[in-house]
Queue: 3 jobs
Job 1
Amino acid sequence: MHGTGVLELLGALGLVLARARPAAGWCLAALFVCLLPANVHAARAFRIPEQLTYVAVAVTASRSHARRPLR
């Protein structure tokens, strides 16, 4: 996980340097394409259940507020 972050930062640095910009752009594009399946998996495996928890907490909080005011 940290390795991909390092590659992204190096790619960002490459985009700032005019001589490295073309190579950095293509390398970043390839990196993002390679990471796409892992990002989709992470979103499906972790983010969706997490989001459902947030929805449940928000609904519960709104219902408890209707019954008794917060102080």
Note: The mean pLDDT is 88.
Job 2
Amino acid sequence: MVIKKRKLLTILLISLFSSLSVAQIKEYKISKSNDQWKKILTEKQYHILRESGTERPFSSSLDNNYQKGTYVCAACKTPLYKSEHKYNSESGWPSFDREISGSIETDVDYKVGYARTELKCNSCGGHLGHLFNDGPKKTTGKRHCINGTALKFIPFK
């Protein structure tokens, strides 16, 4: 019985470490060292984008921005969201019902004690926010709940 438990434990540990090493291997099109990111991002941007932080709700001016334009990653300027897909979720964070195709990657995060779908910039890996299934039913039903600090808004000319 002890040998079976050891084998099972060994298999579980190998699985765990294998999945961790695969997750750490991903290389992004835009890659910088932590020191390089710190030089180009504000302290708040660095905390959110590189350390998966969260801004206070209702603290971003982009939450109530409904101008026409494109929302880009504050770190690498990759276009992420179109203004036409932004809506007022009343959550306190800028919310979108979909991303620009290919611009976002998802991951699972357990930082609050349960699984949530994390949204990241597909070009630099910057943490943007989380995906929820309580968005507008008439469109996608999805809510991309995004930290305004992780975005820059580029108005249409």
Note: The helical segments are 2-25, 34-40, 43-51.
Job 3
Amino acid sequence: MAGVEAALDLRAHHAGTLPRHAAYLHQRTAGRIGNLTQPIRQAAITSILDGTDRITKTSLDQIRIDHLAETHHRPTIDQPRAPRR
């Protein structure tokens, strides 16, 4: 992840931000490496367009990724269990 971060050309981005959010990114992408680059790339593009020039957890959270990863990441509602007999 540090390698991906080093390749970003964002003036205001703080080195170490992405590795610090590794657990969040792993959960968010369902542990799939192919899903990892999409939100980072989109957050970088968005940050350039909005002038912030940095990626944050908040900006990553606003990026939609593929359906399977989004479903995996979405909090589930506990369903009541049938009573044991």
Note: The mean pLDDT is 79.
